[in-house]
Amino acid sequence: MHISAPFRLRDVTVLPEWTDYNHHLTESAYLLIMGESSDAFFRSFGVDDAYRAGGHSLYTVETHLRNLREAREGERLNLTIQVLGSDDKRLHVVHEMYNATGGLLATAEQMILHVDMRAGRAAPFPDHIARGLREISAAHAVLPVPRYVGRSIRIPEA
C-alpha cells in the first residue's frame, strides 16, 4: 500500500455558511473542516461506520488550533494530515490547511484516543488498526516535525 507523507485527503471550498460577517472562515469552521478531514483519514486505516457500529471509536481529547491567515468565502483549501506518533491507545496528528497558492492558513495539533464505547474507557487498538497506524507512522517518520508542535499558549514574561 502506498502511504503519502503527509496525507493529502481533502480539498474544500469555503462555503457561505462557514463564514462570518466579514466573509472570512469562522473559528469553528476551521475545526469543522479539519474534523471532516480526520474522518476521511480514519477511514483510510479502517475506522469507519462499520467499525464504530462494533463499539469502538476515536475521540479527540486535545486540540491546539492556530489561525494564521484568513480564508475567504469561495476560496479553495488544501488539507494535509501528518502522523506524529501513536501507541497502543493514542494517535498524535497535525493538520495543515493551505490556500490555493500554498500559503499556510491554519494548523491543528491533536491527541486522539481509541475508546471502547461499551465499556466507556480507553482501549488498545485492535491488531489490524495498530498495524496500519505503525505503517503510516513509519512512512511519516521521514517528515520533519513542525516547529510549532507541542507549543503551549502563554503571554511571554517581560
Name of the CATH class: Alpha Beta
CA radius of gyration: 16 Å
Helical stretch tally? 3
Give the helix proportion (percent range).
10-25%
- Enter the CATH topology name: Thiol Ester Dehydrase, Chain A
Order of helices and strands: EHHEEEEEH
How would you describe this protein?
The structure is a single chain. The chain is of the alpha+beta class and 158 residues long. The radius of gyration is 16 Å and the shape is globular. The protein has helices at 27-44, 49-53, 127-140; strands at residues 7-13, 56-67, 76-86, 90-99, 104-116, 121-122. Strands 1, 2, 3, 4, 5 and 6 form a 6-stranded antiparallel sheet that branches. Strand 3 (76-86) and strand 4 form a beta hairpin. 25% of the residues are buried. The protein has one domain: Thiol Ester Dehydrase, Chain A.
Structure in a nutshell:
This protein has 158 residues and is an alpha+beta fold. The protein has helices at 27-44, 49-53, 127-140, and strands at 7-13, 56-67, 76-86, 90-99, 104-116, 121-122. The chain contains three helices and six strands.
